[in-house]
Amino acid sequence: MSKLAIIGGTGLAHLSDLKIINKQMVHTPFGAASAPLITGELCSQPVVFIARHGHGHTIPPHKINYQANIWALKSLGVERIIAVAAVGGITEKMGPKTIVIPDQLIDYTYGREHTFFNDDFSPERHIDFTNPYNNDLREQMISVGSSLDCDVVSEGIYGATQGPRLETAAEINKLEKDGCDIVGMTGMPEAALARELDMDYATCAVVANWAAGRSGSDITMQEIEENLIDGMGNVRGLIEKLLPLVLK
Ligand code: HPA
């Protein structure tokens, strides 16, 4: 049975119904992971959980040690990752609370440690990244999502921005011209690092707000928090239904 991990993002700092079996802080050659890795059972299914932003949500997106987090998961034998992420919605279908299972991404981040192959370089270190997300995991999420009482969009392009500030309206216009449907700050280099270590990885994004300039008013933390309460509630439902399928 392949071992599955959930990386929790903003709005999903813990899995409330997770029966905790073990909690361990993993130190890696790249430093410490964001938080203890929690091994446990959810709906009687084994799962590993890590809070990307740390306990108490203290690590901003550009300071997350993505290398350590992915390495730590690999060191526990994790083979498949569902990455949960809050995003802004850019295009029409991507309204607040929508769950999006992106099929592509564009990376606008900079200055982040983005590879495990800094020193140890050989031709096979050019990973294929044509399709950045694992399609089996995506399809399983999409099929489970159709039974949920919320909007689930089965494809979209995720634009990964640097943060921690939100974007300008002009930046969002540029992202839309590039083809982006949603925008978030943590999708990269996480996805590429998982691919470098040969792990299956897919994102379950929750729209927290209309992206800058898309709603006619400024973005407030209050609206983000309110939308994420409902949105992440739906993600918990999706994960619970997904586990028996993914772990088959
Ligand atoms: N932009 C970038 N990241 C985000 C947003 C946004 O509007 N909302 C939630 N995460």
Outline the structure in words.
It is a single chain. With 248 residues, the chain is α/β, with parallel strands linked by helices. It has one domain (4-246): Nucleoside phosphorylase domain (Rossmann fold, 3-Layer(aba) Sandwich). It has 5 helices and 13 strands. Helix 3 links the parallel strand 11 and strand 12. The mean pLDDT is 94.
State mean pLDDT (0 to 100 scale): 94
CATH superfamily: Nucleoside phosphorylase domain
| Major sheet description | 11 strands, mixed
Number of domains: 1
User: End-to-end distance, in Å?
Assistant: 7 Å
List the helices and strands and how they pair.
Elements: E1 3-8, E2 19-24, E3 27-28, E4 31-32, E5 37-42, E6 45-51, H1 66-75, E7 78-89, E8 99-100, E9 104-107, H2 135-145, E10 152-153, E11 157-160, H3 169-178, E12 182-184, H4 190-196, E13 200-210, H5 221-246
Helix pairs in contact: 2-5
Bound molecules: hypoxanthine.
Quick description:
By secondary structure, the chain is of the alpha/beta class. The chain has helices at about 65-75, 135-145, 170-180, 190-195, 220-245, and strands at about 5-10, 20-25, 25-30, 30, 35-40, 45-50, 80-90, 100, 105, 150-155, 155-160, 180-185, 200-210. It is globular, with a radius of gyration of 17 Å.
